[in-house]
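Need C-alpha coordinates for this chain, all 597 residues.
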Amino acid sequence: MPRWKTGVTAGLASIAALTMIATAAGPAIADTAPDQSTDPAMAKYADQKLAWSDCGFELAVPTECALLTVPRDWAEPASGVDLQVQVSRVVATGEDGSQGIVLTNPGGPGGQGTDLPAMIAELQPDLNARYDLLGMDPRGTGRLDPFGEEADQMLTCDVPITRLPQGPQDARDRSAKSIKEHQQVPQAIAEACQSRAITPYITTWQTAHDMDLLRQLFGAEKLNYIGYSYGSWLGAKYASMFPERAGRMVLDSSVDWQGRLMADFEDFPRMGQRQIDDVFLPWANRLIPEVFGETVTEAKAAIERGREIAGEAGIDGDSYDSLFVGNGSQDGWVITLLVLGSLIDEDALAELGSLPKEGRSLLDHVSKERFGVPASKLTAKLVISKNLGQPEVQEDYVKAPLTRFAVACGDQPTESTEWYQRLSDQQGPRYPYYGWAYGLSEVCGPWTDEPRHELPTLPESVRDNVLLVQGEFDPQTAYEQAMAAVDQAPGVNVVRVDDSPFHGQYAIQGNYCVDGVVNNFLINNSATDNAICSSVPLPLEEKVFPTDGPVDDYLDGHGHGQDRGGSLLKIVDDTVARLLGKRISVLNGPGAMAVTR
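Here are the C-alpha coordinates for all 597 residues:
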Protein backbone atom coordinates (compact mmCIF):
# COMPACT_ATOMS: atom_id res chain seq x y z
CA MET A 1 0.00 0.00 0.00
CA PRO A 2 1.44 3.44 -0.88
CA ARG A 3 2.70 5.33 2.15
CA TRP A 4 0.31 8.21 1.54
CA LYS A 5 -2.68 5.99 2.20
CA THR A 6 -1.53 5.10 5.70
CA GLY A 7 -2.26 7.06 8.83
CA VAL A 8 0.68 9.31 8.10
CA THR A 9 -1.47 11.02 5.49
CA ALA A 10 -3.53 12.55 8.25
CA GLY A 11 -0.70 14.68 9.50
CA LEU A 12 0.58 15.38 6.00
CA ALA A 13 -2.79 16.60 4.75
CA SER A 14 -3.12 18.93 7.70
CA ILE A 15 0.38 20.22 7.15
CA ALA A 16 -0.11 20.54 3.40
CA ALA A 17 -3.33 22.47 3.85
CA LEU A 18 -1.88 25.03 6.28
CA THR A 19 1.26 24.27 4.56
CA MET A 20 17.36 25.13 21.68
CA ILE A 21 13.84 26.54 22.63
CA ALA A 22 14.24 30.32 22.66
CA THR A 23 13.61 30.92 26.34
CA ALA A 24 15.75 34.04 26.11
CA ALA A 25 13.47 35.70 23.59
CA GLY A 26 11.82 37.94 26.16
CA PRO A 27 9.28 40.69 25.45
CA ALA A 28 9.19 42.72 22.27
CA ILE A 29 11.63 45.62 22.16
CA ALA A 30 12.01 48.56 19.83
CA ASP A 31 14.43 48.75 16.90
CA THR A 32 17.76 48.92 18.69
CA ALA A 33 20.07 47.87 15.87
CA PRO A 34 23.38 49.76 15.87
CA ASP A 35 23.85 52.47 13.26
CA GLN A 36 25.66 50.85 10.34
CA SER A 37 27.42 54.10 9.47
CA THR A 38 28.87 54.88 12.91
CA ASP A 39 29.08 51.76 15.07
CA PRO A 40 32.53 50.07 14.93
CA ALA A 41 30.91 46.63 15.34
CA MET A 42 29.19 47.16 12.02
CA ALA A 43 32.33 47.90 10.02
CA LYS A 44 33.02 44.29 9.00
CA TYR A 45 29.54 44.04 7.49
CA ALA A 46 29.46 47.47 5.83
CA ASP A 47 33.00 47.09 4.41
CA GLN A 48 32.58 43.63 2.90
CA LYS A 49 32.98 43.10 -0.84
CA LEU A 50 30.47 40.88 -2.57
CA ALA A 51 32.24 38.24 -4.66
CA TRP A 52 29.99 37.75 -7.67
CA SER A 53 30.12 34.43 -9.50
CA ASP A 54 27.95 31.86 -11.27
CA CYS A 55 24.74 31.04 -9.39
CA GLY A 56 24.84 27.32 -10.01
CA PHE A 57 21.47 27.20 -11.74
CA GLU A 58 20.53 27.85 -15.35
CA LEU A 59 18.61 30.98 -16.23
CA ALA A 60 17.74 32.54 -19.58
CA VAL A 61 19.03 35.94 -18.44
CA PRO A 62 22.66 36.24 -17.23
CA THR A 63 22.64 36.28 -13.42
CA GLU A 64 25.39 36.52 -10.83
CA CYS A 65 25.24 35.41 -7.22
CA ALA A 66 27.20 36.21 -4.08
CA LEU A 67 27.08 35.50 -0.36
CA LEU A 68 26.14 38.39 1.91
CA THR A 69 27.44 38.11 5.48
CA VAL A 70 25.02 39.39 8.11
CA PRO A 71 24.96 39.24 11.91
CA ARG A 72 22.77 36.59 13.44
CA ASP A 73 21.10 39.31 15.49
CA TRP A 74 21.06 42.91 14.30
CA ALA A 75 20.20 44.05 17.82
CA GLU A 76 23.46 42.55 19.12
CA PRO A 77 25.75 42.08 16.11
CA ALA A 78 28.74 41.02 18.20
CA SER A 79 26.89 38.04 19.67
CA GLY A 80 26.46 34.71 17.95
CA VAL A 81 27.85 33.33 14.70
CA ASP A 82 27.43 35.33 11.52
CA LEU A 83 25.01 34.13 8.86
CA GLN A 84 25.36 34.18 5.10
CA VAL A 85 22.46 34.77 2.75
CA GLN A 86 22.68 34.30 -0.99
CA VAL A 87 21.92 37.31 -3.17
CA SER A 88 21.74 37.72 -6.95
CA ARG A 89 21.82 40.46 -9.54
CA VAL A 90 20.87 40.99 -13.17
CA VAL A 91 22.79 44.01 -14.40
CA ALA A 92 20.87 46.80 -16.16
CA THR A 93 21.01 46.42 -19.94
CA GLY A 94 20.38 50.03 -21.03
CA GLU A 95 23.03 52.05 -22.86
CA ASP A 96 22.93 54.68 -20.13
CA GLY A 97 23.67 52.15 -17.39
CA SER A 98 21.69 51.61 -14.22
CA GLN A 99 19.56 54.29 -12.64
CA GLY A 100 19.35 52.30 -9.39
CA ILE A 101 18.48 48.95 -7.89
CA VAL A 102 15.21 47.04 -7.52
CA LEU A 103 15.16 44.25 -4.94
CA THR A 104 12.59 41.53 -5.63
CA ASN A 105 10.95 39.08 -3.23
CA PRO A 106 8.55 36.19 -4.04
CA GLY A 107 6.94 36.05 -0.59
CA GLY A 108 6.24 33.07 1.65
CA PRO A 109 7.41 33.63 4.31
CA GLY A 110 10.20 31.36 3.20
CA GLY A 111 10.56 31.91 -0.54
CA GLN A 112 14.02 31.82 -2.06
CA GLY A 113 14.39 34.73 -4.45
CA THR A 114 17.74 34.53 -6.22
CA ASP A 115 16.16 33.36 -9.50
CA LEU A 116 13.38 35.96 -9.43
CA PRO A 117 15.35 38.86 -11.00
CA ALA A 118 16.09 36.81 -14.12
CA MET A 119 12.44 35.83 -14.50
CA ILE A 120 11.25 39.41 -14.14
CA ALA A 121 14.00 40.66 -16.45
CA GLU A 122 12.90 38.20 -19.15
CA LEU A 123 9.25 39.18 -18.78
CA GLN A 124 9.83 42.93 -18.31
CA PRO A 125 12.96 43.91 -20.29
CA ASP A 126 12.12 47.62 -20.14
CA LEU A 127 12.48 47.54 -16.37
CA ASN A 128 15.80 45.72 -16.59
CA ALA A 129 17.06 48.25 -19.11
CA ARG A 130 16.88 50.91 -16.39
CA TYR A 131 17.61 49.00 -13.19
CA ASP A 132 19.90 46.38 -11.73
CA LEU A 133 17.44 43.74 -10.53
CA LEU A 134 18.39 42.05 -7.25
CA GLY A 135 17.21 38.89 -5.52
CA MET A 136 17.78 37.42 -2.09
CA ASP A 137 17.30 34.09 -0.39
CA PRO A 138 16.20 35.59 2.93
CA ARG A 139 17.68 34.20 6.12
CA GLY A 140 16.11 30.84 6.82
CA THR A 141 15.51 30.03 3.15
CA GLY A 142 18.96 29.54 1.67
CA ARG A 143 22.60 29.17 2.59
CA LEU A 144 23.38 29.29 6.31
CA ASP A 145 26.83 27.77 6.57
CA PRO A 146 27.32 27.99 10.36
CA PHE A 147 24.41 25.61 10.87
CA GLY A 148 25.64 22.96 8.47
CA GLU A 149 22.93 23.47 5.89
CA GLU A 150 23.69 22.76 2.25
CA ALA A 151 23.66 25.68 -0.16
CA ASP A 152 20.18 26.47 -1.53
CA GLN A 153 18.59 24.29 1.18
CA MET A 154 15.90 25.92 3.28
CA LEU A 155 15.99 25.49 7.03
CA THR A 156 13.45 22.95 8.19
CA CYS A 157 11.90 21.61 11.35
CA ASP A 158 12.11 17.82 11.42
CA VAL A 159 8.79 16.47 12.67
CA PRO A 160 8.85 12.73 13.50
CA ILE A 161 6.17 10.76 11.69
CA THR A 162 5.42 9.09 15.02
CA ARG A 163 4.25 12.45 16.40
CA LEU A 164 1.58 12.74 13.72
CA PRO A 165 -1.87 11.13 13.88
CA GLN A 166 -2.40 7.68 12.42
CA GLY A 167 -5.39 7.06 10.17
CA PRO A 168 -7.34 9.07 7.57
CA GLN A 169 -8.25 12.58 8.68
CA ASP A 170 -11.28 14.68 7.87
CA ALA A 171 -11.70 18.02 9.62
CA ARG A 172 -15.44 17.87 8.92
CA ASP A 173 -15.50 15.14 11.56
CA ARG A 174 -16.05 17.20 14.72
CA SER A 175 -15.62 14.40 17.21
CA ALA A 176 -13.26 14.99 20.13
CA LYS A 177 -10.91 12.35 18.73
CA SER A 178 -10.74 14.02 15.32
CA ILE A 179 -10.11 17.47 16.77
CA LYS A 180 -7.40 16.16 19.10
CA GLU A 181 -5.64 14.34 16.27
CA HIS A 182 -5.74 17.40 14.01
CA GLN A 183 -4.22 19.53 16.75
CA GLN A 184 -1.35 17.07 17.15
CA VAL A 185 0.11 18.33 13.88
CA PRO A 186 0.60 22.05 14.71
CA GLN A 187 1.75 21.10 18.20
CA ALA A 188 4.46 18.82 16.80
CA ILE A 189 5.56 21.43 14.24
CA ALA A 190 5.67 24.25 16.80
CA GLU A 191 7.79 22.19 19.19
CA ALA A 192 10.16 21.10 16.41
CA CYS A 193 10.61 24.63 15.05
CA GLN A 194 11.03 26.29 18.43
CA SER A 195 13.70 23.74 19.36
CA ARG A 196 16.11 25.23 16.79
CA ALA A 197 18.50 27.86 18.14
CA ILE A 198 18.23 29.97 14.99
CA THR A 199 14.44 30.37 15.12
CA PRO A 200 14.25 33.65 17.10
CA TYR A 201 16.45 35.33 14.49
CA ILE A 202 14.33 34.40 11.46
CA THR A 203 11.94 37.35 11.43
CA THR A 204 10.89 40.24 9.22
CA TRP A 205 12.72 42.70 11.51
CA GLN A 206 16.03 40.90 10.96
CA THR A 207 15.52 40.43 7.20
CA ALA A 208 14.68 44.12 6.73
CA HIS A 209 18.10 44.96 8.19
CA ASP A 210 19.72 42.46 5.81
CA MET A 211 17.98 44.26 2.93
CA ASP A 212 19.31 47.63 4.02
CA LEU A 213 22.84 46.28 4.26
CA LEU A 214 22.52 45.06 0.66
CA ARG A 215 21.38 48.55 -0.37
CA GLN A 216 24.38 50.06 1.37
CA LEU A 217 26.85 47.70 -0.32
CA PHE A 218 25.48 48.74 -3.70
CA GLY A 219 26.04 52.37 -2.77
CA ALA A 220 22.38 53.13 -3.49
CA GLU A 221 20.70 56.04 -1.76
CA LYS A 222 17.30 54.37 -2.13
CA LEU A 223 16.11 50.76 -2.24
CA ASN A 224 13.38 50.20 -4.83
CA TYR A 225 11.39 47.03 -4.36
CA ILE A 226 8.89 44.55 -5.87
CA GLY A 227 7.36 42.10 -3.40
CA TYR A 228 4.58 39.56 -3.84
CA SER A 229 2.20 38.40 -1.08
CA TYR A 230 4.19 38.11 2.17
CA GLY A 231 6.72 40.17 0.23
CA SER A 232 4.25 43.06 0.56
CA TRP A 233 4.55 42.77 4.34
CA LEU A 234 8.34 42.61 4.14
CA GLY A 235 8.53 45.61 1.79
CA ALA A 236 6.11 47.71 3.82
CA LYS A 237 8.00 46.95 7.03
CA TYR A 238 11.30 47.86 5.39
CA ALA A 239 9.81 51.20 4.32
CA SER A 240 8.41 51.68 7.83
CA MET A 241 11.75 50.93 9.52
CA PHE A 242 13.91 52.82 6.99
CA PRO A 243 11.63 55.50 5.52
CA GLU A 244 14.48 57.76 4.43
CA ARG A 245 15.98 54.90 2.40
CA ALA A 246 12.80 53.53 0.82
CA GLY A 247 12.48 54.21 -2.90
CA ARG A 248 9.64 53.05 -5.12
CA MET A 249 7.90 50.12 -3.41
CA VAL A 250 5.54 47.83 -5.39
CA LEU A 251 3.41 45.62 -3.11
CA ASP A 252 1.67 43.02 -5.27
CA SER A 253 -1.14 40.84 -3.87
CA SER A 254 -0.99 42.44 -0.48
CA VAL A 255 -1.62 41.46 3.11
CA ASP A 256 -2.73 44.05 5.66
CA TRP A 257 0.74 45.43 6.37
CA GLN A 258 -0.73 48.04 8.70
CA GLY A 259 -2.38 45.37 10.87
CA ARG A 260 -1.72 41.70 11.69
CA LEU A 261 0.12 39.37 9.33
CA MET A 262 -1.78 36.38 10.72
CA ALA A 263 -5.08 38.01 9.76
CA ASP A 264 -4.34 37.04 6.17
CA PHE A 265 -3.93 33.34 6.99
CA GLU A 266 -7.04 33.45 9.18
CA ASP A 267 -8.98 34.80 6.20
CA PHE A 268 -7.95 31.97 3.86
CA PRO A 269 -11.21 30.00 4.30
CA ARG A 270 -13.44 32.97 3.43
CA MET A 271 -11.51 34.35 0.48
CA GLY A 272 -10.87 30.88 -0.93
CA GLN A 273 -14.54 29.90 -0.70
CA ARG A 274 -15.53 33.13 -2.45
CA GLN A 275 -13.12 32.52 -5.30
CA ILE A 276 -14.34 28.93 -5.75
CA ASP A 277 -18.04 29.81 -5.57
CA ASP A 278 -17.99 33.02 -7.60
CA VAL A 279 -15.33 32.38 -10.24
CA PHE A 280 -13.91 28.85 -10.35
CA LEU A 281 -17.17 26.89 -10.38
CA PRO A 282 -18.88 29.08 -13.04
CA TRP A 283 -15.71 28.58 -15.11
CA ALA A 284 -15.99 24.80 -14.63
CA ASN A 285 -19.69 25.00 -15.61
CA ARG A 286 -18.74 26.67 -18.86
CA LEU A 287 -15.90 24.28 -19.71
CA ILE A 288 -17.30 20.86 -18.73
CA PRO A 289 -21.04 21.00 -18.03
CA GLU A 290 -21.07 17.20 -18.47
CA VAL A 291 -19.16 16.97 -15.17
CA PHE A 292 -20.08 20.12 -13.27
CA GLY A 293 -23.56 20.85 -14.56
CA GLU A 294 -24.71 24.29 -15.59
CA THR A 295 -25.04 25.96 -12.18
CA VAL A 296 -22.83 26.47 -9.14
CA THR A 297 -25.23 24.36 -7.08
CA GLU A 298 -24.82 21.45 -9.49
CA ALA A 299 -21.04 21.92 -9.49
CA LYS A 300 -20.92 21.76 -5.69
CA ALA A 301 -22.91 18.53 -5.75
CA ALA A 302 -20.48 17.10 -8.31
CA ILE A 303 -17.53 18.03 -6.09
CA GLU A 304 -19.11 16.21 -3.16
CA ARG A 305 -19.55 13.12 -5.36
CA GLY A 306 -15.86 13.35 -6.19
CA ARG A 307 -15.09 13.52 -2.48
CA GLU A 308 -16.99 10.30 -1.89
CA ILE A 309 -15.20 8.57 -4.77
CA ALA A 310 -11.81 9.70 -3.45
CA GLY A 311 -12.72 8.52 0.04
CA GLU A 312 -13.70 5.08 -1.19
CA ALA A 313 -10.29 4.86 -2.90
CA GLY A 314 -8.41 5.70 0.30
CA ILE A 315 -7.91 9.46 -0.09
CA ASP A 316 -8.73 11.21 3.17
CA GLY A 317 -11.10 14.16 3.24
CA ASP A 318 -8.48 16.73 4.17
CA SER A 319 -6.33 15.82 1.16
CA TYR A 320 -9.31 16.16 -1.17
CA ASP A 321 -10.41 19.49 0.26
CA SER A 322 -6.86 20.86 -0.08
CA LEU A 323 -7.47 20.95 -3.85
CA PHE A 324 -9.48 24.12 -3.21
CA VAL A 325 -7.06 25.84 -0.80
CA GLY A 326 -4.83 28.66 -2.02
CA ASN A 327 -5.71 27.95 -5.63
CA GLY A 328 -4.22 31.14 -6.99
CA SER A 329 -2.38 30.15 -10.17
CA GLN A 330 -3.34 29.19 -13.70
CA ASP A 331 -1.65 25.82 -13.24
CA GLY A 332 -3.55 25.25 -10.01
CA TRP A 333 -6.86 25.78 -11.78
CA VAL A 334 -6.00 23.42 -14.61
CA ILE A 335 -4.76 20.67 -12.28
CA THR A 336 -7.86 20.94 -10.10
CA LEU A 337 -10.06 20.75 -13.20
CA LEU A 338 -8.22 17.66 -14.43
CA VAL A 339 -8.32 15.91 -11.05
CA LEU A 340 -12.00 16.59 -10.46
CA GLY A 341 -12.96 15.74 -14.02
CA SER A 342 -11.17 12.39 -13.94
CA LEU A 343 -12.61 11.46 -10.54
CA ILE A 344 -16.19 12.46 -11.23
CA ASP A 345 -16.47 11.40 -14.89
CA GLU A 346 -13.20 10.66 -16.64
CA ASP A 347 -14.95 10.11 -19.96
CA ALA A 348 -16.07 13.73 -19.92
CA LEU A 349 -12.48 14.94 -20.23
CA ALA A 350 -12.71 13.94 -23.86
CA GLU A 351 -15.21 16.77 -24.29
CA LEU A 352 -12.37 19.21 -23.78
CA GLY A 353 -11.12 18.19 -27.20
CA SER A 354 -13.35 20.93 -28.60
CA LEU A 355 -11.12 23.56 -27.04
CA PRO A 356 -8.89 25.73 -29.23
CA LYS A 357 -5.47 24.29 -30.00
CA GLU A 358 -3.75 26.47 -27.39
CA GLY A 359 -6.13 25.25 -24.70
CA ARG A 360 -5.60 21.58 -25.51
CA SER A 361 -1.86 22.18 -25.51
CA LEU A 362 -2.00 23.70 -22.03
CA LEU A 363 -4.11 20.84 -20.67
CA ASP A 364 -1.76 18.24 -22.05
CA HIS A 365 1.34 20.07 -20.87
CA VAL A 366 0.13 20.40 -17.29
CA SER A 367 -1.22 16.83 -17.23
CA LYS A 368 2.07 15.38 -18.51
CA GLU A 369 4.03 17.48 -16.05
CA ARG A 370 2.02 16.26 -13.06
CA PHE A 371 0.69 12.82 -14.05
CA GLY A 372 2.91 11.71 -16.93
CA VAL A 373 0.15 11.41 -19.55
CA PRO A 374 -1.83 13.83 -21.77
CA ALA A 375 -5.22 14.95 -20.50
CA SER A 376 -7.07 12.55 -22.81
CA LYS A 377 -5.29 9.61 -21.13
CA LEU A 378 -5.89 10.73 -17.56
CA THR A 379 -7.98 8.30 -15.49
CA ALA A 380 -9.36 8.25 -11.99
CA LYS A 381 -7.12 5.30 -11.16
CA LEU A 382 -4.01 7.22 -12.23
CA VAL A 383 -5.01 10.37 -10.34
CA ILE A 384 -5.60 8.37 -7.18
CA SER A 385 -2.31 6.49 -7.56
CA LYS A 386 -0.58 9.88 -7.76
CA ASN A 387 -2.30 11.08 -4.56
CA LEU A 388 -4.34 13.69 -6.49
CA GLY A 389 -1.09 15.14 -7.78
CA GLN A 390 0.25 15.86 -4.29
CA PRO A 391 3.65 14.77 -2.96
CA GLU A 392 4.10 11.38 -1.36
CA VAL A 393 6.27 11.02 1.74
CA GLN A 394 8.48 8.05 2.48
CA GLU A 395 10.80 9.45 5.16
CA ASP A 396 10.61 9.00 8.92
CA TYR A 397 10.49 12.77 9.36
CA VAL A 398 8.30 15.41 7.78
CA LYS A 399 10.37 18.48 6.97
CA ALA A 400 8.28 21.53 7.76
CA PRO A 401 9.75 24.86 6.53
CA LEU A 402 11.00 26.73 9.57
CA THR A 403 10.88 30.19 8.03
CA ARG A 404 7.12 30.09 7.36
CA PHE A 405 6.40 29.60 11.05
CA ALA A 406 9.31 31.51 12.58
CA VAL A 407 8.16 34.65 10.74
CA ALA A 408 4.39 34.23 10.91
CA CYS A 409 4.44 33.31 14.60
CA GLY A 410 7.45 35.40 15.60
CA ASP A 411 6.69 38.79 14.05
CA GLN A 412 3.74 39.57 16.32
CA PRO A 413 1.89 38.07 19.32
CA THR A 414 -0.17 35.00 18.42
CA GLU A 415 -3.59 33.69 19.35
CA SER A 416 -4.05 30.47 21.32
CA THR A 417 -4.92 26.94 20.20
CA GLU A 418 -8.31 27.36 21.85
CA TRP A 419 -8.90 30.60 19.92
CA TYR A 420 -8.14 28.85 16.63
CA GLN A 421 -10.44 25.95 17.49
CA ARG A 422 -13.28 28.41 18.02
CA LEU A 423 -12.41 29.99 14.67
CA SER A 424 -12.69 26.53 13.06
CA ASP A 425 -16.14 26.06 14.63
CA GLN A 426 -17.25 29.41 13.22
CA GLN A 427 -15.74 29.15 9.75
CA GLY A 428 -16.46 25.50 8.99
CA PRO A 429 -20.21 25.78 8.31
CA ARG A 430 -19.73 28.89 6.15
CA TYR A 431 -16.56 27.94 4.27
CA PRO A 432 -16.46 24.13 4.25
CA TYR A 433 -13.55 23.63 1.83
CA TYR A 434 -11.03 25.00 4.33
CA GLY A 435 -12.98 26.53 7.20
CA TRP A 436 -13.12 23.30 9.20
CA ALA A 437 -9.43 22.51 8.78
CA TYR A 438 -7.65 25.84 9.08
CA GLY A 439 -8.30 26.64 12.73
CA LEU A 440 -7.24 23.15 13.78
CA SER A 441 -4.00 23.28 11.81
CA GLU A 442 -2.55 26.70 12.65
CA VAL A 443 0.95 26.31 14.09
CA CYS A 444 0.90 29.77 15.67
CA GLY A 445 -1.72 28.49 18.16
CA PRO A 446 0.69 26.35 20.21
CA TRP A 447 3.64 28.69 19.54
CA THR A 448 5.00 29.92 22.90
CA ASP A 449 7.90 32.29 22.07
CA GLU A 450 7.20 36.00 22.41
CA PRO A 451 8.18 38.43 19.61
CA ARG A 452 11.53 40.13 20.14
CA HIS A 453 10.80 43.34 18.25
CA GLU A 454 7.90 45.62 17.46
CA LEU A 455 7.26 46.37 13.80
CA PRO A 456 6.21 49.95 12.98
CA THR A 457 3.48 50.96 10.56
CA LEU A 458 4.04 52.92 7.37
CA PRO A 459 4.69 56.62 8.02
CA GLU A 460 2.97 59.29 5.98
CA SER A 461 6.28 60.52 4.54
CA VAL A 462 6.74 57.50 2.26
CA ARG A 463 3.19 56.59 1.30
CA ASP A 464 3.38 58.23 -2.11
CA ASN A 465 6.34 55.93 -2.83
CA VAL A 466 4.13 52.85 -2.41
CA LEU A 467 2.07 51.21 -5.17
CA LEU A 468 -0.31 48.44 -4.11
CA VAL A 469 -1.61 46.03 -6.80
CA GLN A 470 -4.52 43.77 -5.89
CA GLY A 471 -6.75 41.25 -7.69
CA GLU A 472 -10.45 41.31 -6.83
CA PHE A 473 -10.89 37.58 -6.10
CA ASP A 474 -7.36 36.67 -4.99
CA PRO A 475 -7.76 33.51 -2.83
CA GLN A 476 -4.45 33.98 -0.95
CA THR A 477 -4.35 37.65 0.00
CA ALA A 478 -7.87 38.96 0.28
CA TYR A 479 -8.92 42.17 -1.42
CA GLU A 480 -10.36 43.30 1.90
CA GLN A 481 -7.04 42.73 3.70
CA ALA A 482 -5.20 44.85 1.16
CA MET A 483 -7.79 47.62 1.35
CA ALA A 484 -7.61 47.60 5.15
CA ALA A 485 -3.95 48.56 4.79
CA VAL A 486 -4.87 51.29 2.30
CA ASP A 487 -7.51 52.69 4.64
CA GLN A 488 -4.90 52.98 7.39
CA ALA A 489 -2.31 54.53 5.06
CA PRO A 490 -4.04 57.28 3.05
CA GLY A 491 -1.85 58.43 0.21
CA VAL A 492 -0.56 55.09 -1.11
CA ASN A 493 -1.14 54.40 -4.79
CA VAL A 494 -3.56 51.61 -5.68
CA VAL A 495 -4.23 49.43 -8.74
CA ARG A 496 -7.33 47.26 -8.46
CA VAL A 497 -7.60 44.39 -10.97
CA ASP A 498 -11.27 43.84 -11.71
CA ASP A 499 -12.44 40.19 -11.92
CA SER A 500 -8.97 38.70 -11.36
CA PRO A 501 -8.98 35.48 -9.29
CA PHE A 502 -5.21 34.98 -9.31
CA HIS A 503 -2.40 35.56 -6.84
CA GLY A 504 0.37 37.72 -8.24
CA GLN A 505 -0.32 40.25 -11.00
CA TYR A 506 2.76 42.12 -12.24
CA ALA A 507 4.78 40.30 -14.93
CA ILE A 508 2.77 37.10 -14.37
CA GLN A 509 -0.66 37.40 -15.95
CA GLY A 510 0.26 39.11 -19.22
CA ASN A 511 -1.96 42.01 -18.21
CA TYR A 512 -0.78 44.98 -20.25
CA CYS A 513 -2.65 47.43 -18.06
CA VAL A 514 -1.08 46.21 -14.80
CA ASP A 515 2.40 45.88 -16.26
CA GLY A 516 2.17 49.34 -17.80
CA VAL A 517 1.09 51.03 -14.58
CA VAL A 518 3.80 49.32 -12.53
CA ASN A 519 6.54 50.06 -15.06
CA ASN A 520 5.43 53.68 -15.31
CA PHE A 521 5.63 53.93 -11.53
CA LEU A 522 9.11 52.38 -11.32
CA ILE A 523 10.71 53.79 -14.47
CA ASN A 524 9.08 57.21 -14.79
CA ASN A 525 8.31 57.87 -11.10
CA SER A 526 4.67 58.39 -12.07
CA ALA A 527 2.21 58.00 -9.20
CA THR A 528 -1.14 56.32 -9.95
CA ASP A 529 -4.00 56.83 -7.53
CA ASN A 530 -6.92 54.39 -7.67
CA ALA A 531 -6.31 52.91 -11.11
CA ILE A 532 -8.47 50.00 -12.30
CA CYS A 533 -7.34 47.30 -14.72
CA SER A 534 -9.47 44.53 -16.12
CA SER A 535 -8.44 40.92 -15.63
CA VAL A 536 -7.18 38.82 -18.50
CA PRO A 537 -9.31 35.82 -19.57
CA LEU A 538 -9.29 32.72 -17.39
CA PRO A 539 -7.33 29.62 -18.47
CA LEU A 540 -8.74 27.90 -21.58
CA GLU A 541 -11.02 30.87 -22.36
CA GLU A 542 -10.73 33.74 -24.82
CA LYS A 543 -12.69 36.49 -23.09
CA VAL A 544 -13.39 37.80 -19.61
CA PHE A 545 -16.68 36.83 -17.97
CA PRO A 546 -17.47 39.70 -15.57
CA THR A 547 -18.24 38.81 -11.96
CA ASP A 548 -19.77 41.11 -9.38
CA GLY A 549 -17.38 41.91 -6.56
CA PRO A 550 -15.96 44.65 -4.33
CA VAL A 551 -14.05 46.43 -7.12
CA ASP A 552 -17.35 47.23 -8.84
CA ASP A 553 -17.85 50.12 -6.43
CA TYR A 554 -14.96 51.89 -8.21
CA LEU A 555 -16.03 51.33 -11.81
CA ASP A 556 -17.83 54.71 -12.00
CA GLY A 557 -20.55 53.37 -14.26
CA HIS A 558 -18.14 52.21 -16.93
CA GLY A 559 -18.84 48.53 -16.38
CA HIS A 560 -16.35 45.71 -16.49
CA GLY A 561 -13.54 46.19 -19.00
CA GLN A 562 -13.78 42.94 -20.91
CA ASP A 563 -11.71 44.29 -23.78
CA ARG A 564 -8.65 45.16 -21.70
CA GLY A 565 -5.74 42.80 -20.99
CA GLY A 566 -4.24 40.07 -23.16
CA SER A 567 -5.61 36.72 -24.24
CA LEU A 568 -4.51 34.13 -21.72
CA LEU A 569 -4.59 31.45 -24.38
CA LYS A 570 -1.50 33.17 -25.77
CA ILE A 571 0.00 34.05 -22.42
CA VAL A 572 0.01 30.51 -21.06
CA ASP A 573 2.53 29.45 -23.69
CA ASP A 574 5.02 31.76 -21.98
CA THR A 575 6.65 29.17 -19.75
CA VAL A 576 8.39 31.75 -17.60
CA ALA A 577 5.18 33.59 -16.72
CA ARG A 578 3.31 30.35 -16.09
CA LEU A 579 6.01 28.94 -13.83
CA LEU A 580 6.42 32.24 -11.99
CA GLY A 581 2.68 32.35 -11.32
CA LYS A 582 2.70 28.80 -10.02
CA ARG A 583 5.69 29.50 -7.81
CA ILE A 584 4.25 32.66 -6.28
CA SER A 585 1.00 30.83 -5.49
CA VAL A 586 2.72 27.79 -3.97
CA LEU A 587 5.18 29.82 -1.89
CA ASN A 588 2.40 31.91 -0.40
CA GLY A 589 -0.05 29.13 0.42
CA PRO A 590 -1.12 28.56 4.01
CA GLY A 591 0.70 25.25 4.31
CA ALA A 592 3.92 23.91 5.63
CA MET A 593 4.70 21.42 2.91
CA ALA A 594 4.36 23.68 -0.14
CA VAL A 595 2.11 21.35 -2.17
CA THR A 596 3.06 22.02 -5.77
CA ARG A 597 -0.07 22.65 -7.78
